[in-house]
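Go through this pair.

…
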Amino acid sequence: MTSTTEQFAEFADVSATTLLRFATAGSVDDGKSTLVGRLLHDSKSVLTDQLEAVEAASIKRGQEAPDLALLTDGLRAEREQGITIDVAYRYFATARRRFILADTPGHVQYTRNMVTGASTAELAVVLVDARNGVVEQTRRHAAVAALLRVPHVVLAVNKMDLVDYQEPVFAAIAEEFTTYASELGVPEITAIPISALAGDNVVEPSANMDWYGGPTVLEHLETVPVSHDLTGCHARFPVQYVIRPQTAEHPDYRGYAGQIAAGAFRVGEQITVLPSGKTSTISGIDALGESVDIAWAPQSVTIRLADDIDISRGDLLAPVGDAPATSQDIEATVCHVADQSLAVGQRVLLKHTTRTVKAIVKEIPSRLTLDDLSQHPNPGQLVANDIGRVVVRTAEPLALDAYADSRRTGSFLLIDPADGTTLAAGMAGESFATTKAVAVVEDEEGWDF
């Protein structure tokens, strides 16, 4: 019989070798949807009825060949305008790997959707039109990928057929982007010259670019190393719900349900409950109606403790000796995603895992200038698509990890308390750019924690 530990190791190994989450990004009309459509079509991941529908829609629009972009541009507004608006998620597989793809918009006003699509991605494909080279939106997407700690970035220089497949054009763009992204701290950058429309270097190697000896886009996606070291992460369990049946069959049952955010938990392990700091021992773990000895991210389980402790939704369980510090003062980098601005002194709600607390924006020390990666000091506010540093004071202590250590427990949302609009996505701790420490200015108007 296979032991629980062996099952855990087998699960971690399988997930590491067979699944890749990736996002596509780039400026308007760089060909993201066409690239995705070409990937799906040439990898035989399109159903017959889907292809027939695309062919019919293409003929109706007066196009002779099927417009593969229509495979991902699903909204009527997208098809009418020929642009991507929403994040389109697609699931496909080859013999070597399974994929979850997020096709994100290129328009500046939809940059917020790129944040959504890349937040869980292990790889980002940034497209550039070979005729236009690196533009501001390209830099913005590179910055977002760097902030979100996406470990692998592919620069796909598209529409090489429109520049006669010239190697110097590709080389110049690759050098400019690589220099920029490297300064942001992107750890790995792979540049590939392609023509999504013609299929060059997407799934099959291009006969028009014999000067290029690297992998095709699909080959790189199939072989890029993706690490899911579940055992090496800091174990974190945000409590979502307290289960107390109080029935004749389970009169004393008390369990804490939720999804393990990172790492693994074992029966007999000592844990700390945050923010209270109280400790106990895991007496049992229930998964899918059965008791197990070990559970790991991203499983949804119920954890039982040896002691009766006051625990509610929003509390965080972590191993004794490896628990994050709690604080009411949070310094972070945020991507502002709302149309309304975020200003110093503004009252907000901060949502971290399953916990939502009141907060005040105490300071906005800087805003990132994308052209030269300089920091504009004390802008006073952030507007749509800005990336900046903020200092937030919360009404209650929160247990945040640095985002560099944990993408799940180091991230948070800032929300408008009036209507529930998401204002900004935040990453706690240091960003890719060095920022000077700033003094926190007290706010004298209400909500002064």
Summary: The first helix runs from residue 4 to 18. The radius of gyration is 24 Å. DSSP finds eight helices and 25 strands in the chain. The helical segments are 4-18, 32-42, 48-60, 76-81, 111-118, 136-147, 167-184, 217-223.
